[in-house]
Every structure is written in structure tokens, then in C-alpha cells.
């Protein structure tokens, strides 16, 4: 479903991605973790072409992302993305946020887009919030709207870029619950996150990155259950982030 | 286009009748601008600090007073000062003085709000920290707040001064012989080259104003604040 | 006491002048808003062949006095035109459009309108640009992630937010247009300042003539200010940057 082959990227002379390779299968839930500045966010943003890369190849659903002539907007329309800082459009109400891309990108009718939006709003537990402005919602509610906004586009996979890092601690749970539910329904998901409890519960696979390189890429059980099989850096990282 | 009208009258454009008569032209524009820039800077600081230090009715009264000068057209204020200053002072105030008073009042009112905003932009913790060290309000302002706030305000000062230079052209209406006035004089005398004359005069203003604008931009970049056009 | 008041005839002059001031500033503000948006987009164009000329244009119009610009349009520009065009522009014309009779305005009205519009547009363009910069970069990224094409990102996400952010400074520019319209008296346009000067010369009642004109200006500026506050209260997304 997603193939990443030997991808490298530089900012000037700094190498931010270093020969990254992995494959993500249909229905798989992959958690990407690592210290800050390790290139996790950059890597998942290369998947929908928000970050260009200098070397290597990325294929999503049979479409090569980096190839010249690729219709990136068309690709992005079916790859959902959720950002750290929500990025709801503040001038639009919740339901208009959900409907905008359905109408102008997918060409759905306004009514159809709103009906679908209402459906997904109910699924993330925000029935009755349709006509609020984003500024009137809590952070956790905003992030759930952002997830619903991505789901409205019928994505073939979902990318999460530290979806809970900007949230107050008491709101992290409500967002993770929605993500767990989504994973249970068989959605293909790539999540950059520090929430190791979430990773342990739902990750089919864990990718550990440091200094732009993928140092570890293994099944979730192995990552949390077999510390001796992990590279040194990953062990240090786990020792710091896991509760003792 | 025939720019000989410029070269023939160059000294008149730049200096007016000086040294045989009163200073005029671009030089008088500079004198007007520098004097009103200084005076408006002082007024802006005084009123801005006053805005920051007053509360309630006194603050509201000050806001209204400054609001008057921000709402009145420069031209109308020049009419007023032209008419009122001799009554207030009891003697004939020269046109140059009239214009400087009007420009300083308007520039000062705008700058007062920039100074006030600059003072308010500092976190309240700075006032509290100064107070905790035993500094009084005036001392806190003098040693802690203004040194931090002034660099933030500098771009708005420069932008206001650019506006002043342009507004000094309004001295024309009461017959002060600055650059715009001598331009219309030469244009009326020669009759045939208005395009060349007004292009040249615009160029002079442009050189003065845009060099100040570049300075404002450089300072804004250095201190990381956005230069807001006025 | 009564002889302290202005005769109705002179009050009428002032009201006529006020009407010209309102009409001129409203027309110039509307035209300058449209032109300012275009100039802002040109200034932000990805190619320097558009962005740099736009920058030069804006800098030229912002850094020269409006008075000199008005003199240029009134005296200088007409000297560049062919004689027949100048004669036509100065001659009275009259058309019938549907039910309205349209009268061709005298040349000083044209020069005043063009001068005030171009001057104001340059400032409005900068306000729009500040508004565009006030839209966080993440908003553009999020819109692209949803599959919006570049022009759709502008149309649905950046411009609507930039307009909301720029509305308060935009109203400030409209106030400036009202105040700056007073400069057109220098090219003989009979607006409010011109009228007050005329009334003063005829009656020597300086206080009354300038006082009424000043009150009318301040009243107009105050109405725009109140309209802005009302708009912001009614719609909380006006004037605020994202979050």
C-alpha cells in the first residue's frame, strides 16, 4: 500500500532523512517514534508530498509521489492527515470545515458533504457541534473534528503527526480513543506519536528513528516485549519514555 | 520630455531663494520634517507614557484628546493652527512654526499609541519583577520597561516620520515655500513643463522617504518586529 | 448671538462640500480596495517578473506625498495627453444609462479620484499583505493535505482569513481616505475643506466655518470606527488571526 525506498533529504548541508526504507501494508497500524528532531514528522509528510525529498522513491496506492507529473492534490485527497496543531480553518464553522474539501476537491454536492460530515461528527462524539466555530471548541474537540475532516474524504490511509502533543493532558484520552477505534476498523494508519501506551495497544509495527535514519522496524510485540533485541538507541529511548 | 527646466531651476528646487533670500525648497522640507519629527517624538513619548500610567476617567480623557488629532485631516489642523496660534500667543507666528505645531500634534498623537502599545506588549511579569526589586513605577518605566519597549517602537517611529515628510507638503496651503510650493511656483512661471517638474519633485520625496523606509525595515528585521505601514 | 451663526446659504456650501467629500472618499475607497487586492496578489506572485514591478509601484506611491501625486495627475498627466483627449476630458458630456443620467465629471474630479484611489490602493495592498502573512503556514499545509489545488488554497483558506485579519486596518485606511480627500482642494475640487475655506473668506467667521467642517470630518471618522467595532462584535472571526 505504501512503499518507501531509500528516501534521503537534505536541508542545505544537513541530512534530515537518511536512506529510509519501509513498507506499510493495507490495514496495518504503524507507529513512528524517536527523539525530537529525528525526522519522524518529515518522513510522514513525504508520504503525501507535503515534504519533497531528494533521493529514493515513495509509492502510495500505486502512485509514485516524487515522480514529475504526479497529481499531488489528487493523491492527497485520499490520504488523510491530522496535524499537531489541528489546523482547522478558523473562519469556517465545524461543518463547513468538514464540507470544504469534499465540495471543492471531490466535487460532492453541498448537501451530500454536510450529511457525511454530520455522520463523521457523530462518530467522533461531537453531535451537535456542527455550527460552532473552531475557537469555541476545546483542543481535544478540535482535534477530533480534524480527524473527522480527514475521514470525510474516504481516505485509503491516515497519517497522524503528533496528534496529541499540543493537547492538555486531560484531553489526550478522547483523541486516542477515536484513533484506537479507527485502528480496530482496519484503517491503514501511520502515527508519529510519543504515546507509548497507545502504541502498545494498537501498533502492528513500530518504527524507531534517530538522526533521520530508521534504526529499528519491528512488530509491536517485539518492540515492547524484547528489549534485548533492540538497538542501543531504541533501548535508551524506551527507558526514558516508558513509565517505570 | 525636456528636463532643462529642472537643471535651470535646480538651486531653487533644492534651496529656494537662499542665500539671497529665505531658505526654501527641499532644504525647507527637511527642516520642517526634522523639527516636527523631534517634537512629535517627544510628544509621543510623553503622551504614550501618560496613557500607560493613567486609569479610568483620566485615561479616557487622554484617549479622546489624542483621538481628536488622529481624526482631523492634517489640512484642517493647519488651518486651525494658522488661525489660532496668533490669538493664543498674541503675535504673528511664522508659517513654518504653524506647520511644525500642526504636524507635531498629529504625529505625536499617532506615536503616543505606538509607545503605549510597545509598553503594553511587555509581559506584566516585567513590571512585577521590577516592583519586587523595590523599584517604583517611574523607575521601573525608566530602567526596565522603556529600554525594552523602545527598540520595538522604533519602526513605527520611522514610519510616522515618513508620513510627516509627506504631510509637510501641506505647508503649501499657507504659502510656506517648501518643496511642493516651489514646484507649483516654477510650474506656474514656466507654464509648459508640469510633467517634468512634478516627476522630479516626486523623485526627491521618494528618495528621502524610501531611504527612511529601508532603515525602518532593517531595524524591524534586526529586532524581529514587523514594520507596520502607517 | 444670532449673528454668530452662519447664514443658511453658507451652511449649504459646507453641506455640498461634505457631500463631495463623502462621495469622493467612498468611490476612491471602493476602487482602491479592488486595486489593492490585485496589487497585493501581484506583490506576492511567485515570479519576480510580476512581484518586483509591483514592489516598485507600491513603493513609489507610498513614498511620495499625495499632494504631489494630485498635482502630477492634474497638471502633469494632462500635459502628456494628446490635445484632443484633453479637450474631450474637459468638455461636458452626458449619457443616459437605463434611468440614470450620467454626467461626465469636471477634470479636477477625475484627477482627484485617480490620485486618491492610486495612493490609497498602495496602502491597502500592504494591509492585505500583512493579513496574508497573518495566516499561519500550517493552514496552507493542512489545505494542501486535503487535496486543495494552489488556487483553491488561496480562494477558500488564505484570502478569506487574510480579509478578516485586515478588516480593522482596512477601515483605518478608509478613514485616511476621508481625511486625505481634503487635499483635493489644492486642485480646485470643491469638497469640505475647500468649502470651509471659501465660507471663511466670505464671512470671516473662522470658528464656525472650520468648526463645522472639523466636526463633520471627525463625525465621519467616528462612524467608520463604530462600524468596525460593531462588525467585530457581531462576527468574532473578524480581525483575529487564527487561534
Task: Please explain how this structure is put together.
The complex is a heterotrimer of chains A (244), B (230) and C (243). In chain A, 37% of the residues lie in helices and 25% in strands. In chain A, helix 3 runs parallel beside helix 5 and helix 4 crosses helix 5. The longest helix of chain A is centred in the last third of the chain and has 16 residues. With 230 residues, chain B is mainly α. Helix content of chain B is 78%, strand content 0%. Chain B is built from ten helices and no strands. In chain B, helix 3 runs parallel beside helix 6, helix 3 runs antiparallel to helix 8 and helix 4 crosses helix 6. The longest helix of chain B is centred in the middle third of the chain and has 31 residues. Chain B is elongated. In chain B, 45% of the residues are buried. The C terminus of chain B is likely disordered. Chain C is mainly alpha-helical. Chain C has one domain: MetI-like (MetI-like fold), CATH 1.10.3720.10. Chain C contains nine helices and two strands; from the N terminus they run H-H-H-H-E-E-H-H-H-H-H. Chain C has a two-stranded antiparallel sheet with strand order 1-2. The mean pLDDT of chain C is 90. Classes of the chains: A alpha/beta (244), B mainly alpha (230), C mainly alpha (243). At the A-C interface, helix 2 and helix 3 of A face helix 6 and helix 7 of C.
Amino acid at each position: 500500500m505504501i512503499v518507501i525506498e531509500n528516501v534521503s533529504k537534505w536541508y542545505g548541508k544537513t541530512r534530515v532523512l537518511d536512506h529510509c526504507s519501509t513498507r506499510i501494508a493495507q490495514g496495518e497500524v504503524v507507529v513512528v517514534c524517536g527523539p525530537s528532531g529525528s525526522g519522524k514528522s518529515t518522513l510522514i509528510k513525504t508520504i503525501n508530498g507535503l515534504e519533497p525529498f531528494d533521493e529514493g522513491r515513495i509509492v502510495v496506492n500505486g502512485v509514485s509521489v516524487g515522480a514529475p507529473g504526479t497529481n499531488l492534490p489528487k493523491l492527497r485527497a485520499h490520504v488523510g492527515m491530522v496535524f499537531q496543531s489541528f489546523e482547522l480553518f478558523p473562519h469556517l464553522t465545524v461543518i463547513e470545515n468538514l464540507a470544504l474539501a469534499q465540495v471543492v476537491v471531490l466535487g460532492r454536492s453541498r448537501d451530500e458533504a454536510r450529511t457525511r460530515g454530520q455522520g463523521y461528527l457523530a462518530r467522533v462524539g461531537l453531535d451537535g457541534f456542527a455550527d460552532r466555530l473552531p475557537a469555541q471548541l476545546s483542543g481535544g474537540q478540535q482535534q477530533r473534528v480534524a480527524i473527522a475532516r480527514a475521514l470525510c474524504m474516504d481516505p485509503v490511509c491516515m497519517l497522524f503527526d503528533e496528534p496529541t502533543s499540543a493537547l492538555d493532558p486531560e484531553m489526550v484520552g478522547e483523541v486516542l480513543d477515536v484513533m484506537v477505534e479507527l485502528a480496530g476498523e482496519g484503517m491503514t494508519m501511520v502515527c508519529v506519536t510519543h504515546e507509548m501506551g497507545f502504541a502498545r495497544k494498537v501498533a502492528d509495527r513500530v518504527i524507531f528513528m534517530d538522526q533521520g535514519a530508521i534504526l529499528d522496524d519491528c512488530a509491536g510485540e517485539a518492540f515492547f516485549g524484547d528489549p534485548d533485541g533492540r538497538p542501543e538507541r531504541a533501548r535508551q529511548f524506551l527507558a526514558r519514555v516508558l513509565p517505570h | 520630455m525636456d528636463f532643462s527646466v529642472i537643471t535651470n531651476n535646480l538651486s531653487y528646487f533644492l534651496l529656494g531663494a537662499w542665500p539671497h533670500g529665505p531658505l526654501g525648497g527641499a532644504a525647507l522640507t527637511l527642516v520642517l520634517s526634522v523639527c516636527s519629527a523631534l517634537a512629535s517624538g517627544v510628544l509621543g513619548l510623553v503622551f504614550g507614557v501618560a496613557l500607560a500610567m493613567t486609569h479610568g476617567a483620566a485615561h479616557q480623557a487622554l484617549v479622546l484628546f489624542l483621538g481628536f488629532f488622529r481624526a482631523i485631516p492634517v489640512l484642517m489642523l493647519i488651518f486651525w493652527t494658522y488661525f489660532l496660534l496668533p490669538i493664543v500667543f498674541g503675535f504673528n507666528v511664522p508659517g513654518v512654526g504653524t506647520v511644525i505645531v500642526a504636524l507635531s500634534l498629529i504625529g505625536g498623537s499617532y506615536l503616543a499609541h505606538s509607545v503605549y502599545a510597545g509598553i503594553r506588549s511587555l509581559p506584566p511579569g516585567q513590571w512585577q519583577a521590577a516592583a519586587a526589586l523595590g523599584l517604583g513605577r517611574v523607575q521601573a518605566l525608566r530602567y526596565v520597561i522603556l529600554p525594552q519597549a523602545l527598540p520595538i517602537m522604533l519602526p513605527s517611529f520611522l514610519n510616522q516620520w515618513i508620513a510627516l515628510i509627506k504631510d509637510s507638503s501641506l505647508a503649501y496651503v499657507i504659502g510656506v515655500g517648501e518643496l511642493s510650493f516651489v514646484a507649483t511656483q516654477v510650474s506656474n512661471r514656466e507654464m509648459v513643463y508640469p510633467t517634468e517638474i512634478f516627476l522630479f519633485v516626486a523623485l526627491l520625496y521618494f528618495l528621502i522617504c524610501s531611504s527612511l523606509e529601508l532603515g525602518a525595515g532593517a531595524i524591524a528585521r534586526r529586532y524581529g518586529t514587523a514594520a507596520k505601514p502607517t | 448671538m444670532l449673528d454668530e451663526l452662519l447664514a443658511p446659504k453658507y451652511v449649504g456650501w459646507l453641506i455640498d462640500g461634505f457631500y463631495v467629500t463623502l462621495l469622493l472618499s467612498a468611490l476612491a475607497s471602493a476602487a482602491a480596495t479592488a486595486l489593492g487586492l490585485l496589487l497585493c496578489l501581484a506583490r506576492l506572485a511567485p515570479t519576480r517578473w510580476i512581484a518586483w514591478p509591483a514592489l516598485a509601484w507600491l513603493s513609489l506611491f507610498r513614498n511620495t506625498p499625495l499632494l504631489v501625486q494630485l498635482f502630477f495627475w492634474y497638471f502633469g498627466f494632462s500635459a502628456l495627453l494628446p490635445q484632443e483627449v484633453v479637450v474631450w476630458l474637459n468638455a461636458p458630456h452626458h449619457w443616459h444609462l437605463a434611468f440614470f443620467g450620467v454626467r461626465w465629471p469636471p477634470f479636477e474630479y477625475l484627477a482627484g479620484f485617480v490620485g486618491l484611489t492610486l495612493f490609497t490602493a498602495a496602502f491597502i495592498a500592504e494591509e492585505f499583505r500583512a493579513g496574508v502573512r497573518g495566516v499561519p503556514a500550517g493552514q496552507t499545509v493542512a489545505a494542501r493535505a486535503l487535496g486543495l489545488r494552489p488556487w483553491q488554497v488561496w480562494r477558500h483558506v488564505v484570502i478569506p482569513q487574510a480579509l478578516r485579519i485586515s478588516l480593522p486596518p482596512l477601515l483605518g485606511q478608509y478613514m485616511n481616505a476621508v481625511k486625505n480627500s481634503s487635499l483635493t482642494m489644492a486642485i480646485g475640487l470643491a469638497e469640505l475643506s475647500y468649502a470651509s475655506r471659501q465660507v471663511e473668506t466670505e464671512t470671516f467667521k473662522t470658528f464656525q466655518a472650520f468648526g463645522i467642517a472639523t466636526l463633520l470630518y471627525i463625525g465621519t471618522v467616528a462612524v467608520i470606527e463604530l462600524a468596525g467595532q460593531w462588525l467585530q462584535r457581531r462576527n468574532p472571526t473578524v480581525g483575529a488571526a487564527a487561534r
